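Posting this for the archive.
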Amino acid sequence: MNKRERMKALFSNEETDYVPAGFWFHYPADYTVEQHLEGHLKLFRETDQDIIKLMDDNFGNLLTKGISIDKASDWRHIKLPGRNCVHFQRMEELVRKTVDQAGQEAMIFPTMWSPFKIASFTYVFGGSSDEKFMQHCKEDPDSVLAGVQAIADTLEDWAEGFLEAGADGLYYSGQFSEPGRFTEEGWEKLVKPFDLQILNRVHCHEEKYNIVHICGEAEHNFTASPQRYKDYPGDLFNWDVHRDNFTLEQGREYFGKPVLGGLDNHGILIEGSLEDIAGETHRIIKGFGKKGLMIGADCTVPADIDINRLRAAVMAAREV
């Protein structure tokens, strides 16, 4: 199998010749398209991993640039640039250039942050805070919903644009499911509908895939609630198995889909020896089985990590 065939088999929950693997980290936000391209291809080539995940390191700053939310009702009047946003244009260019240089070798997945996370960034980059955003969600959820809907509509169109540029799907960063942030009812009303809107758009296309990453924030000790994503249209699910109290085996049974992860980006990948990393990779695969698994980290790894640590896991996954 080549890397594209291997990932396609994984998404279909079929046997692969060996367990695929993939890791990623953040890049400087001021990188040019060419610098991003060089950095992503360098990681891909030096680790020999099985996919290329394109990081989005402007965190939605440019999409809502200039928007100030002083009171919740301000969300009802926001204006967004759509595909005219310089950030979309840069990401689209990065997708096209990556497809040109490596699309025959591997599947390519641009990162997309959830509409609710982009809404939170609007406050942070505007000089306010996530706490103020959460306060507005409680005081006037309908106004907040109007703004998040506008963001979701824009991101849905962006997703379409990335697919048109040759992406194989999305690496979707699901956010705000940390325990204690929202009740189940609040989650269902405020967050979930917009996630589904974007993920369902990807599935409108044949052989386009969603990798759903379930992310917890540092201020919540990196914990999230994977159980809230049960019926999401994902083809591969990733979460922090070391902090969410939810094992890879539990995820396989719960989601009924292939899973990604297993290695602690705060632990063994940083602190262990190369032999430790290889041994833990072997242990995970032998315990889980080779079907329906992609080896990776709980989340992004530090940008200054020794690439040989990641390569050790990629190579070890091929030995079981």
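Strands lie at 51-54, 107-113, 169-174, 209-214, 236-238, 259-263, 293-297. The first strand starts at residue 51 and ends at 54.
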